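User:
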Amino acid sequence: MPPSMTDPLASGRLLLLAPVNAVGVPGAGLALTLARAFPFWVEPYKARCSSARGGDLFLVRGPSSVDVLCAFTKEDWRKPSELRWIQGICLKAQRMDLSGYAEVRVPALGCGLGGLSFERVGPILIAGFGHGKSRFFPPQ
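Assistant: Predicted structure:
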């Protein structure tokens, strides 16, 4: 078989983490940017919100080479993120098989609009997503 059929890294699939709330409103920050760029994930995300809590993860497979992993960093968009939710996200991520992705893009979950300190969140994210295919993006 050609290498592209046997090597999961050759697939070129990209996994984007979307920091989201459990209300179903990707109305600001990176969630809004991702919703505009890759709208395929928004309706499944909204449908999941009725049972979602802070710290949950929800994978939405895209129609092309991009998937979105919804990371519930807030229960309500009006309230700040909680460090325990970021910890829960990272613990769940450690149990996921991400070997089929060429790259996993990890933003500073809970920082920015979530109000958490990157100094506290950064090491947690590295522990949860710190394999060779992850790219980390500090807050801007």
